[in-house]
Prior knowledge:
Elements: H1 2-32, E1 34-35, E2 38-39, H2 44-50, H3 56-89, H4 111-120, E3 138-144, H5 147-163, E4 168-174, H6 176-189, E5 194-200, H7 205-208, H8 227-230, E6 237-241, E7 245-247, H9 251-255, E8 267-271, E9 295-303, H10 304-309, H11 312-327, H12 334-344, E10 349-352, E11 358-359, E12 378-380, H13 394-405, H14 425-435, H15 444-449, E13 456-457, E14 474-481, H16 487-494, E15 499-505, H17 507-518, H18 521-524, E16 529-535, H19 543-552, E17 558-561, E18 566-568, H20 572-582, E19 590-594, E20 596-598, H21 610-619, E21 623-624, H22 639-644, E22 649-651, E23 660-664, H23 680-690, E24 694-697, E25 703-705, H24 712-719, H25 721-742, H26 747-755
Parallel strand pairs: 3-4, 3-6, 4-5, 8-10, 11-12, 14-15, 14-17, 15-16, 19-24, 20-25
Antiparallel strand pairs: 1-2, 6-9, 7-12, 8-9, 13-16, 17-23, 18-25, 19-23, 20-21, 22-24
Pathway: Protein modification; protein glycosylation
Organism: Macaca fascicularis (Crab-eating macaque)
GO molecular function: glucuronosyltransferase activity; manganese ion binding; UDP-xylosyltransferase activity
Amino acid sequence: MLGICRGRRKFLAASLSLLCIPAITWIYLFSGSFEDGKPVSLSPLESQAHSPRYTASSQRERESLEVRMREVEEENRALRRQLSLAQGRAPAHRRGNHSKTYSMEEGTGDSENLRAGIVAGNSSECGQQPVVEKCETIHVAIVCAGYNASRDVVTLVKSVLFHRRNPLHFHLIADSIAEQILATLFQTWMVPAVRVDFYNADELKSEVSWIPNKHYSGIYGLMKLVLTKTLPANLERVIVLDTDITFATDIAELWAVFHKFKGQQVLGLVENQSDWYLGNLWKNHRPWPALGRGYNTGVILLLLDKLRKMKWEQMWRLTAERELMGMLSTSLADQDIFNAVIKQNPFLVYQLPCFWNVQLSDHTRSEQCYRDVSDLKVIHWNSPKKLRVKNKHVEFFRNLYLTFLEYDGNLLRRELFGCPSEADVNSENLQKQLSELDEDDLCYEFRRERFTVHRTHLYFLHYEYEPAADSTDVTLVAQLSMDRLQMLEAICKHWEGPISLALYLSDAEAQQFLRYAQGSEVLMSRHNVGYHIVYKEGQFYPVNLLRNVAMKHISTPYMFLSDIDFLPMYGLYEYLRKSVIQLDLANTKKAMIVPAFETLRYRLSFPKSKAELLSMLDMGTLFTFRYHVWTKGHAPTNFAKWRTATTPYRVEWEADFEPYVVVRRDCPEYDRRFVGFGWNKVAHIMELDVQEYEFIVLPNAYMIHMPHAPSFDITKFRSNKQYRICLKTLKEEFQQDMSRRYGFAALKYLTAENNS
């Protein structure tokens, strides 16, 4: 408040000065024009008419006065400029929720004036502001390719969503990998007033592949050049962002800058904050041509309609062809070509204040862009070192970035009240399903979980795997939460084949997992493990949803449906592939059972053969799985027969049977109504049976359950009577659904349940 008052006093003082100085000047001139009490005219004609004694002396006095007048007028003009700057620096008034305008800092084409303005302060203008209507859609374009860039996009989008008050339309130029990841993410995120369109980056490669590029972004770093051709013809303007950007303000403020473009200005850019284009970073450093320090293309405002009329495509191509004759390749991808075009056509650019792109690269001058935290608008991690870059205030910037990195994305599902949103079929169906539930039902929370849409980030880490050509490949499928991370390395050592894992984590836990994985030599050496993050929401562990996510995203014809706390025997992967051929799984409906055992010892000398396992069973080091608490779950496997079996044998389904099986990838999904503990696998095996799958026990396969602390869900099951009542209700409803779907074939399950 004190700062506002001081600003107003300065404004008032400057205004009075502007009004008073001309008046004082004229009084001074008027009084100084009297000679001997008689007025001296400033006009030569009047002087001659009134004073016949007009002399050379009076002529000199008149000329002296005219010079003085011009000096005073120049001082007045200078004062007006200072007053204008003072208005620009005056604190903006607080905006209420009803406001439809956003203040926007003044840009300039003069870098020295820009730096002077920055030193003076970066506060918003309080004069007339460009208007951004409350429900005006803001268009944002991002080029994204690969697994790592997809993670970066999420953090950028979070920072934009956190501050935004307008509908957003993201235009994502993405390769097939990024499109799969981000399409699923936005579909499950379900953020109101956000639309996402994808454009196939792979189809654009031919447009820029002729340009040699040394930048780490590769060919995708050149694709911003072709946005006029790629984006819809009716799209007039767009904000273009790099994936390593973090917003610290409402993006509508940046959108408002378009109203400040004049004449032929079609590009809004921030001056480059390193000395790269000055060519003095090292001996024989020869950068591409640029205007002064050049411009950084991490944040670009594009007037697409005017660029198309100017034949932008032809303009940048001709410039690139000419410069490549001498430069041979680009060092900074599209940025070099943008700068070369601007060098020849400086009228194209509107220079943004540098706090719209605070560049945290090496040798940066970004510290001149801000005096205070409130000055920051956009942070750009444009060094290959990213968060490890050297900067005086890097710790603050890193914390700001980590805030959005770990921010709960579910909290960004905010409605924009007063803004109509496009009809979303998925959202409407969800609301309809939820409205049909009885909120007074004691099992309401269980039923609601079945319809909860969990935000899902597929392939959180790099994934690279081509299934075996012989069509026998098998993927191990499992799910886990944060408390089972320690099992990952052991499973990777036991199973060399592809793995698909669904991890139930919060945003903060996802980053902990990322650091854990990146610090593990075992996990980083494996590129055939797909990690799919399903973000936490609600009070139950959605075990069957997680299984379905992991099942859906496998690339092999077969899958081994396991749990994370089991270690498969060494060599199981190859054994299963041979069994697939032996049992003709490709042409028959079979479920191959891998017998399950358990140990109570945290340190176990893992058996390397069936004979060694049988010996440990006899010594009491190993047990058949859950023999002492849930015998029915695995009793039909017939462990007595398995001990001496040398060939696969068939077993019949029995009530509560829940073995671990290998099936074709087209098998039915798990039923989502079962969450937490109880009946989640039993229901799935029941459905396999009703679909006439044969259960075949493999004689030389086994898996061992490792000990761990009880899960939160099993604790709730044991301690909460209502939990058990609701689980029983869900079981009955599932069996009724089975009867409706499969008719007479499902009647045996009702009978078996009654007899058990």
